[in-house]
UniProtKB/TrEMBL annotation:
It comes from Catellatospora coxensis. This is Transcriptional regulator. GO terms for molecular function: DNA binding. It comes from the Bacteria. CDD domains: HTH_XRE. Residues 10-65 form the HTH cro/C1-type domain. SUPFAM superfamilies: lambda repressor-like DNA-binding domains (SSF47413). Coiled coil: none annotated. The lineage of its organism: Bacteria, Bacillati, Actinomycetota, Actinomycetes, Micromonosporales. InterPro entries: Cro/C1-type_HTH, Lambda_DNA-bd_dom_sf. PROSITE patterns: HTH_CROC1. Transmembrane segments: none annotated. It holds the Pfam family HTH_31.
């Protein structure tokens, strides 16, 4: 792409947007013949104003038309590349509600269609298919933003805002997993504002955990702790009168607060928050997935192990892992289980059992490959395991390392 003339670039992105030359011409206010000549290089694009207009119609960062394309990095899972990151950034930077005052808003998908798309995206996330979700995000974001703008003054306004809040949360979560931390924070911050507009305290509560997780990934652990605890206190349940969904979101906030506390070495606060989360899980009576939290007794134990790893207490994490009920653990969603295996790989490495650490990485890879192959921290753990392995690593681990491009 970086060697192509600008007309060929326009053609490439128009086709990628599944837009005919006629539709593209209509949106630009030009003729089909004009578009054809531009794409064939017969007509030059020598006005920046026209280039910016083309980029806007294509919903694209103008640098992808003018400058060098970001390089695609080789990746066995094709998790995400910098062209896709640029597309997501472009979608996140859109301000459709403001633009709607000056231009005709894009045609939104029906609410029922958006609801179905959001559900499918959640399922993709819960099965750890991060690359698939990342590639779907630009269109999903644009559609949800268009729906939120178009239905702002209708009976569907709150649901449209609710769906956009969900999409922002999904974007934040997957971008954090893939190491795009600034974009993750931006999407999380957007999710809070939209969730408040949707009038749903619980959606806003879950959005808070996305913001806190983005802050934690950026190293701002104390800020993450404070925001989780503050909102958890506001959602603190009333004994005997709390619905399961509120209890789940409250408990989820406590778990994320505990993780933030562990990152700053505040073990006392961490234990208090985990105990409160355990009480909430007991009140729930089992493992649920209200508001996509996967909250329940098993997830509390999984977070206890993860928090122990953050504190460097690998032995405690292993004891918790060994005590998990196999049936309850296997009933958890693939993303949660694979994430736990990655945590346990770190835990086993902490106690010097690099063989078991490697086994944990392989277990996670079998369950949800993107959790291991797409996450920067997994690459770090695998490199550490290889470096500390005496002799030759197992064939399976060596193959995984080769596929991930990880060396000692």
């Amino acid at each position: 792409m970086d060697e192509l003339p600008i007309g060929r670039r326009v053609s490439y992105w128009r086709n990628r947007r599944k837009m005919s030359q006629q539709v593209f011409a209509d949106r630009l206010g030009k003729s089909k013949s004009w578009v054809d000549k531009v794409e064939r290089g017969v007509r030059r694009l020598d006005k920046f104003s026209v280039v910016y207009e083309i980029a806007d119609v294509l919903q694209l960062d103008v640098q992808l038309l003018l400058g060098k394309d970001p390089e695609r990095r080789p990746d066995s899972m094709n998790c995400i590349d910098q062209i896709e990151v640029a597309e997501i950034r472009s979608a996140l930077e859109r301000y459709d509600q403001i633009s709607a005052f000056f231009y005709a808003a894009p045609e939104p998908p029906p609410i029922a269609e958006m609801r179905k798309a959001a559900l499918h995206a959640w399922q993709t996330w819960e099965h750890g298919r991060y690359g698939v979700l990342a590639r779907a995000l630009p269109k999903l974001l644009r559609d949800a933003q268009a729906a939120d703008t178009a239905y702002a003054h209708s009976d569907d306004s709150r649901e449209a805002a609710h769906l956009l809040g969900q999409v922002y949360q999904l974007a934040s979560s997957v971008l954090r997993k893939l190491g795009e931390l600034d974009l993750s924070w931006l999407a999380a911050d957007r999710s809070i504002a939209v969730s408040q507009r949707a009038g749903d305290q619980l959606l806003a509560g879950v959005a808070t955990t996305r913001v806190a997780n983005a802050l934690r990934a950026l190293g701002r652990h104390r800020a993450a702790l404070e925001v989780n605890v503050n909102i958890a206190n506001r959602l603190c349940p009333t004994p005997g009168e709390t619905a399961d969904d509120q209890l789940s979101v409250y408990g989820f906030l406590l778990l994320q607060g505990a993780m933030a506390a562990s990152c700053i070495g505040d073990s006392a606060t961490m234990r208090d928050l985990l105990t409160a989360a355990q009480d909430a899980a007991a009140g729930l009576g089992g493992d649920k997935n209200h508001y996509w939290t996967s909250f329940g007794p098993t997830n509390v134990l999984v977070h206890r192990a993860a928090a122990a790893v953050e504190l460097g207490e690998g032995g405690l994490a292993i004891a918790i892992h060994d005590g998990l009920d196999p049936g309850a653990f296997n009933a958890m969603l693939p993303e949660r289980r694979a994430h736990h295996y990655l945590d346990m790989a770190r835990g086993f490495a902490q106690v010097g059992d690099v063989e078991r650490a490697g086994e944990m990485l392989l277990e996670g890879d079998l369950l949800a490959p993107a959790e291991i192959r797409c996450r920067p921290i997994a690459h770090e753990v695998l490199s550490d395991v290889l470096r500390r392995t005496r002799g030759t690593p197992t064939a399976a681990l060596a193959e995984l390392a080769e596929q991930m491009g990880v060396g000692v």
